[in-house]
Amino acid sequence: MVKILHLLLILVIGSASMVFSRVQSFAFVPESATTTPSEAMRQLMPLKDALKGLEKIHKVSIMFDSKLAENILVQTKEKPQHESIETALTNMLSPVNINYKKISEQFYVINFKDSKTSADHRQNSPKEKGSTEPTPAENANNLSEVYRELTITGKVADGSNGEILPGVSIKLKGKNITTSTNSNGKYTIKVPEKGILVFSYISYITKEVAIGSSTVINVDLMPDQQKLDEIVVVGVGYGTQQKRNLTGSIASISAKSIKDIPVTSFENAIQGQIAGVQVQEPSGEPGAATTIRVRGVGSISAGNEPLYVVDGFPISKNVESATQGDVSKRTVAFRPAPANPLGTISPGDIQSVEVLKDAAAAAIYGSRGSNGVIIITTKKGKRDGTTSVNFDSYYGIQTLANKVDLMNSKELSEYVLNAKNNAYLQDFPNASINDPNSVRYTRSTNTSYYLPNDFINPTGVDTDWQDVLFKNSNIQSYNLSLSGGAEKLGYYISGNYFNQGGIIDKTGFKRYTFRINIESDPVKNLRIGAIVNPSFTDQAKGSTSAPYFADPPGAVYTALVHSPTVSPYLPNGTINQSNNQSHLNTENGTGTNMTASSNPLAVVKYIHDDLSQFRSFASAYAEYTFLDGLKYKFMIGTDINNYNRKYYREKAFIDRAATVGVPYGQSNSSLETNWLSENLLTYNKVFGVHSISALAGYTAQKDKIRNNQVQAENFPDDLVQTVSGGQVTGGTATEEEWSLVSYLGRVNYAFMDRYLLTATIRSDRASRFGEGNKVGYFPSFSAGWRMSDEAFMKNIKWISDFKLRGSWGKTGNFLIPNYAAVGLLSPYNYVFGNVVTNGIAPSTPSNPNLTWEKNTQVDIGLDMSFLSNRIFASLDWYNKKTSNLLLNVQVPAVVGYGNSNPLMNIGEVENKGFEASLSTQNLVGSFTWSTDMNFSTNKNKVLKLGASGDPILSTGGAGIRHITRIGDPIGSYYGYVVEGIYQSQAEINSAPKDKLAAKAAPGDFMFKDVNGDGVIDANDRTVIGNYQPDYTYGITNRLGYKGIELSFLIQGVEGSQVLNLTRRHLANGEANTNSYSVLKNRWLSPDQPGDGKTPRADRLGDLHGFNNRPSTYQVEDASYIRLRNVTIAYTLPAKWVGKYFSSFRVYTSGTNLFTKTDYIGYNPEVNNQSTSSGVQGEDYGAYPLSRNFTFGINASFK
Question: What's the CATH code of the domain at 198?
Fold first, then answer.
């Protein structure tokens, strides 16, 4: 394959050489002339025609009197382009005794003074007898004096937003004097003093400006929205379509909307900018994957990520854990966010991003379109005969976006004292808090009552573990690109280096990418192209996002629970791993009675987890036009991914309350090869008022994955930190593959551009499904009506465009395990003749009926523009139902399959909502101001769960805390409802009996008797919240004035909730770890009830009021509004930088500058188990977001 691509590139470059070597020929023969080949060498023609021919060949302007020139015949050559303009004029004019004058390189004047043109060359007399008017020759004699040359300079900008416009055509009206603006919007042109300059640009209103005495002419061009909609095309899958004729719901975002936001991957930059698309950053770890949901969550067991199509190549962001590798000992619930597979794409290489949201748009991708489709188009070279060299770079500082408010040493000491006193007095009602420690300790072996003699922290240590763990770090990016082309060749070449350090030591992400996009037309009707994009990433992950008690522990959570009374280092300067908690708890101060946690510095220093990825993406295509409008395109491509992961826990690391280190090493590697072949036939034709386009295609795609893992233990020391340095204790090797063969078709029809129809169909045959259900059919229909073109709306002047559209379609979900429908076998030992023999046994049952999750969606939308296109609005209402919902169903062990949970189709889910987008041009002219706004709602509801409708209880990071049941959203939080806090024993006695809190006391939680049976028990658990928001929104403002730009993006979420499992330790009232400072407002007594929401401190709360059970106390409002980005930029004047640069722009940008939220943790978007919709929305100490401040430049070289 690589050889084929290399050969194709050679052919493309060779064709480019052919293009550059070709020269067109011009023959100046009057239309009425008939000549033989020998006569063609020299022929007579009117001087007027001959001069116009020279203007066209040499790209100059020749001033002359057309009436006089028309009456003179001159001899011309067949190929005058082989001569210079001066030679051609001399050879042409000398025989007829006419002179010329050179005014400039582009401007010549014909002078008839002293002309003695012979009668042989005259067709009629230039002046009638008796005429008093000057002859044309007399007028022409002074042409060189009348027309004085001026050098005009200026800048052309968008009158709606002030942005510069490169490539604007400037032409002297009626003449062949032209130029264009450079990448900085600047131009220079030499023209006569009297004339008119014509400024024209695609999708903008052409403007004419008279040349006066001023040599500086700055022009603002206004967008012609009607032409813009007619010309602008968007990716619709296997092709493009005019924006104004779309009948499906498709959103688009251009490169300029994301260029100034410093991000690892493009998804982070589009957050808050597209209606109906929720982009979440569940982890701030550099290189971690984002979570994208298009119109809600539609599946429980299958994936919910959209399909990504990069330059026509469909890829999945869902990555199996084995592909990237993970620590084999790790609890699945504490698996960190995977590395982002799309992080290999440099955002600077992206030209546009389209999101296909409804089924009518996404059905062309059939079984993979259920969750929406995101089409990424990378940059190509412009075929304008120029070469552009651009350098884009930024450098910045990252800091922790916000700190969690925890107790200091003094506050924690008081809290622990209060908790121990309450526990002591409750278990021994006749005791006194002033009892000596010896009495407290001897009356019970429970050291929860004991108070050390040195309770007041004599060392005075007050460690802020967040300050110890988090640091400032750098982020930097450098991108160099070369683009351009000629009439038959376009090329784009770029290289990028990106380095983002983590705000936790030994974490970070580096990327090296190189890209070549080449496109050529070597012969008539044939276009070929190739893309080659190798990339390498290196992610230092460490161990950051897991609970402190996990294996391996997470550095973030260990820092949160660690006592501030503990010093980070021992007196000898080594990391303190011997006294890992506080002297507040036991007589010897070793911390055995306070929940032990590892020193976060030790977690960072001694646990290593590094993931590298090499990715090679390449594709090539050939497109041939058979007839007018009929094209055939063949594309072939490969996407090769190689992951290597190295994990090592040093012997020097002492875990929690352990006394010695236990080293462990692991090595993972995987190779994924994905190849694609496509054959597409397209037809586009306009018949009067009828327009039709059709697509038919056949595609085949196959993916193969090989994974290897080796584990080792018993390392003698930490000198050799690879698996070869220890004793290999285990390993696995797996191979998987899937394939997809598809037929597809689409027809678009438009009548008068007013009535629009689209129909698509796709057939997919997939290897992943049951034998009888491998083939699926996915149709869609959509229609549009441009009501603004109807007679009844023609006279409504303030309406520029008004289109009603509607769609219906079916899509599928392909994201399931490769062998879910196949009965699998696993190794199994058995006894045969008193000998243990190796064998195999069935591990999962087969399911030949396993079929696609099918998504049926209805969408009704309006696209509108008002006030001469100053206001644009788009509204959508949709209803999306997922049927044949795939669920893992437990099979009883008695049937012989162990505890397997095979996939079955037994459910149905609904998502419905409303979307609105609004774009306005608030101010135009020298000062510009534009606004983009979007708003989205979505309501998720389970409609069906199997034959009986029994709910599904899911285990997350702390037992059963999630439920999926009919009538509620997927993965809702499940637990008890807190109604308040008991204020007296009488209130407890009159309340329903709480079977989990036999020793409840005033200050404990009062839980709700949901079913009203007078008892609080497991039957009173109910839905107590969910992660999915009620609505999301984003607002972007852009302002500009004379090269100065200001933009800011505000993004927000309302109605989302987080299951904050850190409250199990940081807010449980038991004072066995450091705690949130809000516990200072806890219940102390009936006279001091605190904030009414926080229970009392009780060191034995799990035996008394059991306040720490799953409940609404652990569910927090995660609504937020965030100042996502602010950018200030300035484009330097050409007079400052024009010697070396065609454009030079400087900017400074801030990201995640401010977040307003009631959530107590680091990040209201947190989602520790982001890949699982059944247990979404948990916070167990995830890597926090950073606040970035960057300074950058955009330079275009001459």
Answer: 2.60.40.1120
- State how far Cα 276 lies from the chain centre: 14
pLDDT per position as a tens digit, 793-834: 988 989 999 999 999 999 999 888 888 888 776 676 767 677
Number of H helices, E strands in the chain: 19, 56
**Which residues are CB-contacts of 414 (< 8 A; sequence separation ≥ 6)?**
none
Strand 775-786 and strand 1141-1157: the pairing is unpaired
Domain boundary pick from 158, 189, 223: 223
Look up the CATH number of the domain holding residue 803.
2.40.170.20
Could you tell me the pLDDT band of residue 591, with boundaries at 50, 70 and 90? very low
The alpha carbon torsion through 648, 651, 655, 658 (nearest 10 deg) reads: 150
Which residue type occupies 358? Answer: D
Do 115 and 167 belong together in one domain?
no
Question: What are the angstrom distances between the C-alpha of 457 and each of 448, 560, 577, 582, 589?
Answer: 18, 19, 19, 9, 11
Share above pLDDT 90 across residues of the chain, in percent, rounded to a whole number: 53
* Domain boundaries, position 809: 266-397+472-562+597-836+851-976+1027-1066+1113-1197
Q: Are residues 299 and 153 in the same domain?
A: no
Written as one string, the DSSP assignment of 525-558 is TEEEEEEEEEEEEEEE--S-SS-TTSSSPPHHHH
Q: β-strand 107-111 against 61-63: which pairing, if any? A: parallel
| 377 and 277 housed in the same domain | yes
Q: What is the mean pLDDT of residues 1183-1198?
A: 93
Residue 177 tokens, joined: 């004097």
Same domain, 212 and 343: no
Interior/surface letters 1172-1184, b for 16+ CB within 10 angstroms, e for the rest: bbbbbbbbbbbbb
| Bridge pairing between strands 1022-1025 and 233-235 | unpaired
Query: How far, in Å, CA of 1089 to CA of 1109, rounded?
Result: 21
The Cα–Cα gap between 1064 and 1079 comes to: 13
Helices in 826-911 by DSSP H: which ranges? none
CA atoms 424, 429, 435, 438: torsion sign: negative
Which tens digit of pLDDT belongs to each residue from 461-520? 899 999 999 999 999 999 999 998 888 899 999 999 999 999 999 999 999 999 999 999
Dist CA 415 CA 1093 (whole Å): 17
Q: Please tell me the distance from the alpha carbon of residue 716 to that of residue 719, in angstroms, as a whole number.
A: 9
Residue 1181 near residue 1135 (C-beta atoms within 8 A): no
Please compute the mean of the pLDDT values over residues 771-779 and round it to a whole number.
Answer: 91
Burial class of residue 438 in the structure, from the number of CB atoms within 10 Å of its CB (0-12 exposed, 13-18 middle, 19+ buried): exposed
833 secondary structure, DSSP code: T
In whole angstroms, give the CA distance from residue 419 to residue 654: 29
Q: Do both 86 and 173 map to the same domain?
A: no
C-alpha atoms less than 13 angstroms from C-alpha of 1138 in its C-beta half-sphere: 13
Q: What string of H, E and C letters represents the secondary structure of 1067-1118? A: CCCCCCCCCEHHHHHCCCECCECCCCCCCCCCCCCCCCCCCCCCEHHHEEEC
Distance CA 689, CA 910 (A): 40
Give the phi and the psi of residue 1138 in degrees, each rounded to 5: -65, -15
Whether 207 and 307 map to the same domain: the answer is no
User: 46 with 189, same domain?
Assistant: no
Backbone angles phi, psi at 419, to 5 degrees: -65, -40
Q: Are residues 134 and 162 in the same domain?
A: no
- Looking up tokens 């990825």 gives 613
Q: Which are the contacts of 477, defined by CB distance < 8 A and separation ≥ 6? A: 262, 348, 392, 393, 394, 496, 497, 498, 499
Query: What is d(CA 813, CA 368) in angstroms, rounded to the nearest whole number?
Result: 5
Determine, yes or no, domain membership for 949: yes
- Per-residue model confidence (pLDDT) at position 148: 65
> Residue 369, SS3?
coil
Nearest-angstrom CA–CA distance, 1059 and 1071: 21
